Amino acid sequence: MRLLVTSERDPASQTIKDIFIEDYGFNENGDIFDGNPVFSNEDDTLLITSSRDMVESNHLDDHFDAEVYIFCSRHRAESGKPALLTHSTGNLGSEVLFGGNPHSLSISAATLVSVALKTLYKERDERRLEMFDVTMEATHHGPTSMNTPLVFIELGSNEEYWQHKEGARAVAAAAMECVSTPLQSECFIGFGGTHYVSKFNKLVLEKNIILGHIAPKYALSDIPESVIEKMISRSAEKVTRAVIDWKGTNQAQREHLLPILDGLGIDLFRAKNL
């Protein structure tokens, strides 16, 4: 069972929830979770609403036996620029700004991050949402402690766009693709570049690379080996390869990273060579 997650504290998720009900045949099934009705469709996919913020919803495993959680969330950015985004979650460093625990990662569903990115691009073009950026993000924020794979798909980046119906339809379409797409057997992890991982977006879109956890340049200088090990072990797909944005790292970061990956038996590729 793959489970769609919204939050009563997240206005974008409530807009997306309305789309699931209006466009995808979700109806109340009589169950209650966190004081909110549970919805399902004819395929018995569940749509739930958490009473907690998305990044703090670590309690789902206590209530559901799911294969994957698909979080439909808001994205906030100071620019306020409209955006459609997807990523795996976790805190690569010691700082915890938005939920989860330090140096802790969720189980990534790399296949679904890639599927979501491709679907968001397709939906943007078909819905003529040219003003929206579409991108993956590096691994960040909670939840981090569940033992079920998850993916975040987000609508941003301010109050105006959290109510944007066509943007919400793009997110809902990506989420429904994630409901039905089988997980692949293997994936890459990524290192370097900016938070919005422009080079890795191209690999997914143009080379069909499947990417799970991504550690951007700003997280690499002090990333411990234990976190790199978690990038490998906390994955629904087997991680055998890594890709590095070579120019998106500095020499000291590469000298720290490369021996660790070699010791862990992970083949490393430069992004430009894939």
List keywords for this structure.
14 strands, 8 helices, 8-stranded mixed β-sheet, Aminopeptidase, 274 residues, 4-stranded parallel β-sheet, globular, 27% strand, alpha/beta
Strand order of the largest sheet: 2-3-4-1-5-10-6-9
Report the β-strand fraction as a percent range: 25-35%
Overall pLDDT score? 96
Indicate the CATH architecture: 3-Layer(aba) Sandwich
Quickly name the level 1 CATH class. Answer: Alpha Beta
Relevant CATH superfamily: AF0625-like
Strands, helices and their partners?
Layout: E1 2-7, H1 11-23, E2 27-33, E3 36-40, E4 46-50, E5 68-76, E6 83-87, E7 90-91, E8 104-105, H2 110-126, E9 133-136, E10 150-157, H3 159-162, H4 165-180, E11 186-191, H5 198-207, E12 211-215, H6 217-220, H7 225-233, E13 238-244, H8 251-263, E14 267-270
Compact overview of the structure:
This protein has helices at 11-23, 110-126, 159-162, 165-180, 198-207, 217-220, 225-233, 251-263; strands at residues 2-7, 27-33, 36-40, 46-50, 68-76, 83-87, 90-91, 104-105, 133-136, 150-157, 186-191, 211-215, 238-244, 267-270. The protein is α/β, with parallel strands linked by helices.
Question: Please, could you describe this protein's structure?
Answer:
It contains eight helices and 14 strands. The protein has helices at 11-23, 110-126, 159-162, 165-180, 198-207, 217-220, 225-233, 251-263, and strands at 2-7, 27-33, 36-40, 46-50, 68-76, 83-87, 90-91, 104-105, 133-136, 150-157, 186-191, 211-215, 238-244, 267-270. The strands form three sheets. The protein has an eight-stranded mixed sheet. The protein has a four-stranded parallel sheet with strand order 12-11-13-14. It has one domain (2-273): AF0625-like (Aminopeptidase). With 274 residues, it is of the alpha/beta class. The longest helix has 17 residues, at 110-126. Helix content is 31%, strand content 27%. Helix 1 (11-23) crosses helix 4 (165-180) and helix 2 (110-126) runs antiparallel to helix 4 (165-180). It is globular and about 55 Å long.
